[in-house]
Structure formats: structure tokens, C-alpha cells
Amino acid sequence: MELLASFRPRRAFPAMMVLSIVTGALVGLLVAGFEQITVEVLLERLLDGPLWWQAAAPAVGLIAAVAILRYLGRGATPSTSDEYVRAFHERHPRLPLSQLPAKLLAGVATIGLGGSVGLEGPSVYAGATVGHSTQGLFARWLRREETKLLLTAGAAAGIAAVFKTPATGVIFALEAPYRDDVARRALLPALLASASGYLVYVAVLGTDPVIDLGGQDSDLSIIHLGGGALLGLVAGLGGRGFAWLVRQAKGLEQRFPIGVRILVGGAVLAGLVVATEAVFDQPLSLGPGVEATEWLRDGEHTLLLIGCLLAFRVVATLTTVGAGGTGGLFIPLAVQGVIVGSFVGQAMGVADIGLYRTLGLAAFLGAGYRAPITAVMFVAESTGTSAFVVPALIAAAVSQLVAGSSSVASYQLDKREGLIERRLALPLTSALTTDTLTVPPDATVSELVYIHLLGRREREVPMVDGGTYLGMCGLEQMSDLERGAWNDTLVADIAQRDLPTARPSWTLRDAVAQMDGNDTDLLPVTDDDGTFIGVVRADDILRLDEILDETEGV
User: Fold this and answer.
1) Is 258 helix (H, G, I), strand (E, B) or coil?
2) Is the Cα dihedral 142, 144, 148, 151 positive or negative?
3) What is the mean pLDDT of residues 245-254?
4) What pLDDT score was predicted for residue 145?
């Protein structure tokens, strides 16, 4: 009987599996509607429209996206897939369902009106949000340590639906949160959600490949493996540079107001439309970039033209991101990889140019997102080609070595951390106490003792004058002072002013190191200008273990 009982599933297991399937189906329907409106209703009509409208549409889309996020989304940011990675690592993830319509509509406006970002960003956000919301509704049937599994499952379903690649959806959702690790525990829910999301989506919109590279055969040779290594080297350098540029583009939000970014971004995107129309006879800077891959496939092109196309696409994507557009970077990275592969293949004079496009896609995508397995699986599923998985793996692996730790994702961690490491990596503000009473420099030692040390059982008290931190006063500082001098001695006369302070941008690891080095259990926190913010106590840092125990079931 004990043996039979050991095979009995956990109480939450059936509920988790059923909810994963339901989540995937809901996400598949949602993403199908999102893509239909974005591509069929808006983007296809834009590409068939007059040149003046093609040039003006991206700016209109950016303005509409910003307005939607600000008013309908109540100040929501344009971040999408980054929000999934951030929520994955948070102890208490927040993905408000109320912001989902605004994010999707902002994505429709950005991409449907020609913004050079991908559909997968809003799709991943939609999947993660639906999964997180489903988790909240049925939390009573699930274990505490399984609180993030449906969030991961929903993200997998979003990728599976928008690319019609269920295996890629699973791997991306598990691989994206870390640069050098995968979220293994979420595998089964992600598989179920990815499969159901894919099935529902293709039942609505069909199974045509997202990218048809063409011109591929099934012969595998040492030349192909060498070509994969070469493309991995080139794409790794390119992916590393592009990731740096993306970080700079995202940082423009802190440096320039939104009006300036939209004005400049709209002008740049309009100029790119005119330039690509003049050079290629079609506006290849518009949209995620699938039309650019079709242009590459249709006939022979000079290296100069291919290089120009890569430059135009990179600038278009960076401009859309910097101007506040809503969308993902998965497809733009893939398109840039196809262009790089075409350039290298043609420069080498190879006959099988389609192979090099495939390898470039795998290498550039893997380097940009630090997700090599996802890149190779995406190649196999999205192009309908599996013969070159081995050289694609080589290309992706080499690109990882060259790209280093760079990534276009803002919240990726290097790898999973243990309990202590997670606690020490938390921001200092998680243990910050801001309502601490302070003592002015003109207070007497008697007031310090009776009001603070005895009345509030404090050992040390910050001395603050008009909001500016001056030092610490406590038992240690007054230990040599006679009792009769308490009423006549000011705290300014005994305060220790050379003790170190912390900054709110520190982590708890920084705070612990500072406490240990100065043999204290209380650390004052100030701004760079010396303004007092609060204190961090060693006891509060230790109690964070209890919080983690309650929220993660440790």
C-alpha cells in the first residue's frame, strides 16, 4: 500500500495541469486576435498604401501607443517580454490584468502602423499575464512553491501561438529568464500550455511558416559545419553590439521627454521609409521585417544592397524602441540574422545561400537573447527545416561565446540562486525603515537617553539637522560621559560623524559587507547629497528569510 501511495500525484498536480491547458487555449485565442488585427487589418493595408502614408504612419503609431499606455493603461510602460522576465524573478510578481488591453492595443498601434519591432513581445506579455491571473483565481488548489508556474506556462503559450512553434515556446519560456540556466521546474506546465496555445491558434489562422527562407537542401558536410562556426563568430559580434545599442535606446527614456523622442523617432522612421523605397523599390524598414527576408529570397543582390538593408533594419528597430514603441525584439533579431547570413554566404560565394540564412538566424537570435536552444528550435520549427540543426547548433554555440553576457533582455539573471544568494541580491530598500525617529544636534544627552535609548529601546539614533544626516549617537558614544553631565551636554558633542552610510541603490549584500566591516548592526541610508532617508537593521535583514519561507514554501 505504501508503494502504491508513492505514485499518488500531489494534490495540486491535476489542477496545475488542467489550468495549464486552459491558460494555453485562452492565450492562443487572444494572440490570434491580436495578430489578425495587427497584420491583416493594419500592416498589410499600410504596405499597400501610398508612400506619404507609409512615411507618416510609424509616427502616428508611436503617438497612439504612448497615448494608449498613458491613459488607458494608466501610466503603463511599453515593456512587454521584459516584464515577463522581471516578474519571473520577483518574490511577489505583479502583472495587472487591467493593463493587458492597453499593452495589446499599444502593440497593435506600434507594429500595425509600421514600427520595426515584433509581435512576440505583446504575445509573451499577454500569455504571462493570463497565466498569472489564472494562478490568482485558483491559488487555493495550488501549492505555494508553484506560484510562478502558470506565469511561465502562459509565456510559453504566447510564443507558441504567435510563431506557430510549440517547442520553441516551451524552451523560450524556460530559457529567457536566465543567461546561463533554464527554469526546469516549469517544464511540464509550459509544455501543456504551449501545445494547447499552438493548437487553438492554428485552428483559427492555419500553419503557414512564419519565415520561408527557400533554397535549402538536405546535404550536410564539414563545409556546413565550418560555415556555422564562421557565422557564429560574425553573429556573436553583431548580436553583442546590437544588445548594447538596445540598452542605450531603452535608456533614452530617462534622458529625453516623450515628446522629443516621438518627434525625432517619427522623423527618422519616415526618412527610412523614403530611403528604402528609393533603394529597394519597397519600404523594407516598416514592420517586424518579414518582407525584408522575402526580398532577400527573391533573386540575387549585391553585398552593398544587403549591407544597406541590415543598417536600415537596425536603425529602424532601435528608433522604434527608443521612441517608446511597444513590441518585441525576437523577430527583429531573427531578421537581422537572416540578413547577416545572406551577406556572409554571398561574400563567400556559396551555392546554398539558404543554409547561411538559416545559420545566421540561429546565431544572431541566440546571441541577442542569450537563448541558443530557443534559436535552434525556432529555426527548425518556423522554417520547416530540420536538416541543418547541427550546424545551427554550432553557429548558436559560437555566437554565445563571442557575445559574452550581453543580452537585449533587461532583467535576465546569469543563473538561478540559492536562498541566501537571493536574499543578499535583494535591493537595500526591501529592508529599509524610513519612519525612524532622529535626534537634532541641539538636543541634550538626557533627552537622547530618556526619549530614545530607554523610551524606544534603541542603542543608536541618527543625528539629523534639517534633513541632513550628521552622525550617530548612542550608548557607545556616551559610555565615558558622567551622569551629571547629561543635562548640559549636547548630542552634537558626542556624536560619531565618521561612520559609513549606505545608498538606496545598494543591495543587501553591500549593506551586510558594510556592517561587518564596521562591526555595527545598524546602517544609516542617505542620498548622494547627504539627505537622510532611513536605516537598515541587521535584524530586519535576517527576518527576510521568514518572508521568503512564507512566499516560496521553503
Assistant:
1) helix
2) positive
3) 85
4) 54
Report the DSSP pairing between strands 532-537 and 522-526.
antiparallel
The C-alpha atoms of residue 493 and residue 473 are separated, in whole angstroms, by 10
- Could you give the 3-state DSSP secondary structure of residue 526? strand
Three-class DSSP category at 261: helix
Residue 525 vs residues 74, 497, 535: alpha-carbon distances, Å: 32, 14, 5
Q: Which amino acid is at 251?
A: G
pLDDT in tens, 251-274: 887 788 889 999 999 999 999 999
Q: Which three cell numbers stand for residue 335?
A: 531578421
pLDDT in tens, 348-361: 877 778 778 888 88
Decide if 266 contacts 61 (C-beta within 8 A): no
Q: Residue 274: how many CA atoms within 13 Å on its side-chain side? A: 9
CA angle 479, 485, 487 (to 5 degrees): 115
Instruction: Specify the DSSP element, H or E, that contains 171.
Output: helix 166-175
Write down the number of H helices and E strands in the chain: 23, 5
Q: What is the DSSP code string of 42-81?
A: IIHHHHTS-HHHHHHHHHHHHHHHHHIIIIISSS--S--H
Terminus-to-terminus CA distance in the chain, angstroms? 29
Are 554 and 548 in contact, with CB atoms under 8 Å apart? Answer: yes
Phi, psi (5° rounding) for residue 11?
-60, -35
313 band by pLDDT with thresholds 50, 70 and 90: very high
Biggest alpha carbon–alpha carbon distance for the chain: 97
> Using CB atoms within 10 A of its CB, is residue 548 exposed (0-12), middle (13-18) or buried (19+)?
middle
Residue 393 banded pLDDT, cuts 50, 70, 90: low
DSSP states of 112-154 as a string?
HTT-SSBTHHHHHHHHHHHHHHHHHHTGGGS-GGGTTHHHHHH
Q: Is the dihedral of CA 206, 210, 216, 220 positive or negative?
A: negative
d(CA 288, CA 283): 12
Asked whether 285 and 358 are in contact (CB, 8 A), the reply is no
For the stretch 133-170, pLDDT in tens is 887 787 776 665 555 778 888 888 888 888 887 777 77
Residue with cell 535626534: 439
**Could you give the CA distance from residue 188 to residue 181 in angstroms, rounded to a whole number?**
17
Please tell me whether the overall predicted TM-score, pTM, comes out greater than 0.70 for this model: no
Dump strand ranges (E) for 404-521: 432-433, 460-465, 468-474
Query: Bridge partners of 531?
Result: 468
Q: What does the alpha-carbon distance between residue 10 and residue 505 come to, in Å, rounded to a whole number?
A: 42
Query: What cell does 10 get?
Result: 500531489
Q: Which cell goes with 531?
A: 539627505
Pairing of strands 432-433, 532-537: antiparallel
Tell me the three state secondary structure of residue 464.
Answer: strand
Q: Note whether 531 and 468 are within 8 A (CB).
A: yes
User: Strand 468-474 vs strand 432-433: parallel, antiparallel, or unpaired?
Assistant: unpaired
CA distances 263 to 79, 269, 286, Å, are 20, 10, 17
For 310-467, list the strands marked E by DSSP: 432-433, 460-465
